[in-house]
Specification:
Elements lengths: L5 H4 L5 H11 L3 E2 L11 H11 L13 H15 L9 E4 L1 H13 L5 E6 L5 H7 L3 E6 L9 H6 L5 E7 L11 H13 L3 E5 L25 E6 L1 H4 L7 E4 L2 H11 L8 H10 L4 H24 L3 E2 L7 E5 L8 H12 L1 E2 L1 E2 L13 E5 L4 H11 L3
Helix pairs in contact: 3-11, 4-11, 5-6, 5-10, 12-14
Amino acid sequence: MKKMARRVATMQPTIFTAMTNLANRYQAINLGQGFPDFDPPQFIRDAATAALNGPFNQYAPCSGQLPLRQAIAARMKNRYALSYDPQSEVLVTVGATEALSATMMGLLDPDDEVILFDPCFDSYRPVIEFAGGQARSCVLRPPDWRFTSEALEELITHRTKILLLNSPQNPIGKVFSHAELERIAALCIKHDLIAVTDEVYEAILFDGQQHTPLASLPGMKERTLTISSLAKTFSVTGWKVGWAAGPAELIEALLRAKQFTTFCGAAPLQIAGAKALEITDEFYCELAEDYRQRRDFLYDLLKTCGLDVLPSQGTYYLMVDISTAGRGDDETFCRWLVEKVGVAAIPASPFYADPAEGKNLVRFTFCKSWPVLEEAAKRLTYF
């Protein structure tokens, strides 16, 4: 008797697990997996301690602790002029990953199609497939990562139900321009598509870039689910506190899927998250400036190694074109980099439906402490 279900039988450990295991084996500096190796701000840790010492240690409501839902609604209103009812239009999830999974389980019927932009985070296609859907990719190519309305519209069929957008985008650091968002919005309205936006890097922007939620464009709020989390903004990736905001009908679909998976996340961390979202804009400015300095340090370092480093407008990633490095494709290059140089990065091919599209690309992260970045610089000197 086969013990493993067909839906997972062909799936391998994620590229992040594989590269982190390899980095650990060779004691390499891990510039691959995108999590900060430094402590979160003191104010959010203090908020968590206070919540743990308070009456918040039993199950939270399935939709999330009300103070957090209220804080999310207030933040959307204050930062983006988007109004949501915290009772019916905001759902707290176990990270943005669960929000995306519940979205696909709650909205897709078998053979419904989802359009996404490649390269994309490697969990997108599996959660679509788990729900019985099919992913169709609009490929963004370096160095400018642009798309045309015509190429995007060619992907839309009578089975297309969702367009999934990540901006700022992991792994390429692209921030979709207002003009691009307008083209996406026009197609969503024309073809009656639901837009799902992954905006977890919304606060990490560089060089004057501004974050514009797709939901804020005319005609889009009533058809858009906006997903974000505490993880990247507050350096608490292990807390797994995320959320979705959108029309009550769509949120209800997510809630019905979520109730039979996790039901709820960590109740005290949700209370701490509510407190964190009260922070002033000064924090966000300092966050972006801090990451800009780390980005520029790693950018200059990789350029000094002779690599073709592509611009990053947001997130905490740099994509590098290795086609002239003479070290094979992305996976071969990354293995060599770990084993011989002692630095880990992530091959880009798993971010594409067609792995060949990413064979010359490698992703580095700069969300690491300065001593770690400086040690990476010493090792890369012998590149």
